Amino acid sequence: MTSELFIRFFPLFLLLGLGLVFRRTGFLNEGAVASLKALIVNGGLPAVLFLSFLTMEIRPSYLLLFLLVFLVCLLLLGAGKILEKTLLREYPLSRFFFTGFEFGMVGVALFTSLFGLENLPRILLLGLGHEFFIWFVYAPLLESQNRGSASLGGIVKSFFSSPIILAILAALILNVTGLYGRMAPWPLTRGVLSAAEMLSKIVTPLILLVIGSELQFDRLDVRGAAKLILSRLAAVSLVGALLAWITSRYILELDRMTLYAFIIFFLIPPPFIIPVFLGKERERENRFFNNLLVLYTPVTLVLLMAIMAVVGV
């Protein structure tokens, strides 16, 4: 068991470490990291998600899971807002830390690196409802912190212009309508899928290098970070366990791979877009949450490794 865990997790920590070294030696500067992020978000992740949704099994009962994940994210947002006004008064906007998950940059990369691209549909069942929450609830609320309001037209436009969303919707349409089955033998289709597969293979290493390059803990409030991380972990563990129980009872059987999909989904950090949407006007909160999000990723890896040591690979 120890050797199996080492084989699975060592490449993750190695790539994170390389990213940190590359940033500190100047090999990866701020501009290079921004370019890599753009490549991941606009090319790599859409390719990965398109391939997975294209061939995954779609059941009517999954609509219930989609709705439940959306509601769970809303519940966590409400819990965060209550805590923000009581136990966490010194950390304004911490409600945004309590809900949402960095599904693309961390969830997809972590799950595929540990369990392979072929098992990715297990965690995608959770990710779809989450993405709708992020686009139509989370991001608009964050944006309103700076602008005072968010435009519905702007939200819809951003949603349907996102390469990730377009890739998911295109794959779902081809899958559900059966068009993919008819188009699969075409040489052009096979060529496009082959190119997407090649692109998808570089996503996880690039994501880990980027995350590692951002491990900069400047002026980190250790006490505040520990308080928020532990509070969030307690909240997401509770609702995650409840959702897993409901899913196993009414939607689908939780085999070991699906169980790990739930575990990883609820362990991953909050969305990395928090500092982006807060903007320069909230410099103090921006710096605090940026450091907090960076710290959360290694915490996720350590906790997951401990859980896998107990539950088994």
Describe the protein's architecture and organization.
This protein has 313 residues and is mostly helical. The chain has one domain (2-311): Na+/H+ antiporter like fold (Up-down Bundle). It has helices at 2-24, 30-55, 62-84, 95-98, 103-115, 121-147, 152-161, 163-177, 179-183, 187-200, 203-213, 222-250, 256-267, 274-278, 283-311. Helix 1 (2-24) crosses helix 11 (203-213), helix 1 (2-24) runs antiparallel to helix 15 and helix 2 packs antiparallel against helix 11 (203-213). The longest helix has 29 residues, at 222-250. The radius of gyration is 19 Å and the shape is globular.
Overall body shape: globular
Level-2 CATH architecture: Up-down Bundle
**Could you give the order of the helices and strands?**
HHHHHHHHHHHHHHH
* Structural class by secondary-structure content: mainly alpha
Low-confidence stretches: none
> What fraction, in percent, of the residue positions are helical?
over 70%
Q: Mind telling me the CATH class?
A: Mainly Alpha
Distance between the termini: 8 Å
Please name the defining characteristics of this protein.
single chain; 313 residues; mainly alpha; Na+/H+ antiporter like fold; 15 helices
Layout of strands and helices, then pairs:
Blueprint: H1 2-24, H2 30-55, H3 62-84, H4 95-98, H5 103-115, H6 121-147, H7 152-161, H8 163-177, H9 179-183, H10 187-200, H11 203-213, H12 222-250, H13 256-267, H14 274-278, H15 283-311
